[in-house]
Specification:
311 residues; alpha/beta; Rossmann fold; 8 strands; 13% strand
């Protein structure tokens, strides 16, 4: 509470700061009303300069926005805690996963147009403006990306082999565990996802056809993906801003973040292990400029209803 003479109340003593010359002055407190215990001291009164009639904080120059989207719930995700469940080497989406993918597509479609090009858009309150969509060649990633590619219309929708989940396509049965498999043939994607641009050398024999990916191979792959992203979509003279949706996997996300931030693999403080957790169909945003990488948010799921939050 401020006294009627405009100076600030000081809880103890008979001196007040009047906010003018910085010096305290004696006051007569004999008739001053005692403040209530619930009243808050608000500090000295000072004039507040008026804001300009219209001022927006100009956005920094950004030449690539990367939106990492984890795939929707797969049959393996849904049954991860079922001890009798036999994992699928290339799992498909569940009904929940399909619903997540469609809600994501609708959300991005409704916010595709950038409504303010000059202001900060740190939470995408002014839209996303996706310019390219990439998906790994694992079925769950392509099935997640396809509804968004369909709704956004005429933007490139491209398969990127190297953004697959750790390990690749491999057998899950105990007797053959970790044996490399082929992956889906080209005709599967041509029939079911005709908008997807496939690699030229991808044929009917599948896209994997190699041994299980070792730990030693994983981080260099993520490093190469980051380098390729910058080469394809980084800062170039006269190139419009690039906003990339990368539909991929939780394990690869941790590898890619480790590449971007130069982190040791899963090394936390005090000898603890670290992990960046992602929910299905979550969105994480990174802005990449010539001299910096800015993390805007991770694992954003506010576009999904509570009953569709899964991991």
């Amino acid at each position: 509470m401020r006294p009627s003479n405009g100076s600030a109340w000081v809880p103890n003593g008979n001196q007040q700061y009047d906010g003018r010359d910085g010096s305290p002055r004696q006051i007569d407190t004999s008739s001053a009303a005692e403040p209530s215990p619930n009243e808050i001291y608000a500090g000295p009164e000072r004039p507040i300069p008026p804001l300009p009639p219209h001022q927006t904080q100009k956005a920094p120059p950004t030449h690539m926005q990367l939106y990492f989207i984890r795939h929707g719930q797969s049959i393996n995700n849904a049954n991860a805690r079922q001890s009798e469940f036999k994992e699928n080497p290339d799992p498909y989406l569940t009904e929940i996963g399909l619903e997540q993918a469609n809600i994501l597509a609708k959300y991005l479609k409704e916010r595709q147009t950038i409504t303010n090009e000059t202001s900060w858009n740190e939470q995408n309150q002014h839209g996303f403006g996706i310019t390219h969509i990439y998906a790994s060649l694992m079925e769950r990633a392509v099935a997640t990306a396809a509804p968004t590619a369909h709704m956004l219309g005429d933007i490139p929708f491209t398969a990127w082999t190297e953004i697959h989940e750790e390990g690749g396509i491999y057998a899950r049965e105990k007797e053959n565990r970790f044996n490399g498999l082929s992956g889906k043939p080209r005709s599967f994607y041509e029939k079911n996802f005709p908008k997807l641009k496939l690699p030229d050398d991808y044929g009917e024999s599948g896209w994997w056809n190699r041994p299980f990916e070792t730990d030693e191979e994983r981080q260099p792959r993520a490093d190469k993906v980051l380098a390729d992203l910058i080469t394809r979509h980084g800062d170039k003279e006269d190139q419009p801003e690039q906003r990339i949706a990368l539909v991929s996997h939780g394990g690869f996300f941790v590898r890619l973040v480790s590449s971007m931030l130069k982190l040791s693999w899963r090394q936390g403080a005090h000898n603890m292990k670290s992990w960046f957790y992602l929910n299905n169909c979550s969105i994480s945003r990174f802005d990449i400029q010539k001299d910096r990488i800015t993390v805007f948010y991770m694992n954003r799921t506010d576009h999904l209803p509570a009953h569709l939050i899964s991991g």
